[in-house]
Design goal:
By secondary structure, the chain is of the alpha+beta class. It has a domain of 171 residues: Beta Polymerase, domain 2 (2-Layer Sandwich). Strands 2, 3, 4, 5, 7, 8 and 9 form a 7-stranded mixed β-sheet that branches. A hairpin with a 2-residue loop joins strand 10 and strand 11. The chain starts with a strand and ends with a strand.
């Protein structure tokens, strides 16, 4: 196998994204480009030049429809949070035909290629102070799940004593699936279905507190020559999350964010 260049990673990521886009359009499931992928659409009309992943978001209702209706095939596999072989609380659609990935942070029992992340937006308390407290509890459990995931890596001679002890404490990740199930249950809280605010808490690495109405209307933006779906209030949401997102980050921060823990290969 040959290791992929960044340009090739973006090429195969785009293929998966367009596949998901076509499915969503044909099944009338709204989605939006999100995070760095959305910034790329607005600022670069495509990938941020150094970006190596793709993120989209859906409201919880649309997310549940997607994971229920999508069918994997010989080219692409969808791994949902409800799959017994998954250790994440969101979904991924993965290429399984052309590429292969070696992740140093295991997230499922499947061997896959390049994927895109699909995150649900969940209702949260309308009281932001209460939401912040809940988010901190979600984050603590999320961090625990990440540590458990890491210990599922096979032990190698070069691993440190600290890692060996971590594997012992977390029983080689034996409890990662029950812990992830608990995390899913806490974040997908039905009592907030009628709230006016939402957040993405399935991957609890960035705090957010948004008005639900900002995720209910959609438009399109150009992304690598294709018109893809985005929320109409993309500028408002991006500024809440990143501030002046049109300003390029310092040069030392212009690096692929998955390069430290994922190796990408062409089959």
């Amino acid at each position: 196998m040959r290791q992929l260049t960044l340009t090739e990673i973006q090429h195969y990521s785009l293929k998966v994204l367009l596949h998901v886009h076509e499915f969503c359009v044909s099944h009338d499931i709204p989605y939006s480009l999100a995070y760095g992928t959305l910034i790329g659409a607005v600022r670069h009309k495509g990938f941020i030049p150094w970006d190596d992943d793709v993120d989209i978001i859906m409201t919880r209702e649309n997310f549940e429809r997607f994971v229920r209706e999508y069918q994997s095939d010989d080219n692409y596999r969808m791994v949902s949070p409800y799959d017994k072989n998954s250790f994440i609380a969101f979904a991924r659609v993965c290429d399984v035909k052309e590429t292969e990935i070696n992740s140093h942070l295991p997230w499922s029992n499947y061997k896959t290629g390049i994927w895109i992340d699909i995150f649900p937006m969940d209702g949260v308390s309308d009281n932001e102070g209460k939401h912040k407290k809940q988010w901190k509890m979600h984050h603590a459990l999320w961090v625990l799940v990440q540590k458990m995931r890491e210990t599922k890596l096979p032990l190698k001679p070069e691993h440190s004593l600290k890692f060996r002890l971590k594997k012992l404490v977390f029983l080689n990740g034996l409890l990662v699936r029950p812990a992830n199930n608990l995390y899913i249950k806490r974040t997908n809280n039905p009592k907030y279905d009628k709230s006016l605010h939402c957040a993405q808490v399935a991957c609890c690495d960035e705090y957010g507190f948004y008005e639900k109405k900002d995720f209910e209307e959609y438009t399109t933006l150009e992304f690598e020559g294709h018109q893809l779906m985005v929320i109409k209030e993309y500028d408002k949401v991006l500024r809440m999350l990143y501030g002046d997102y049109m300003q390029l980050p310092p040069e030392e921060d212009q690096i692929p964010k998955q390069a430290d823990y994922i190796d990408f290969y062409l089959k």
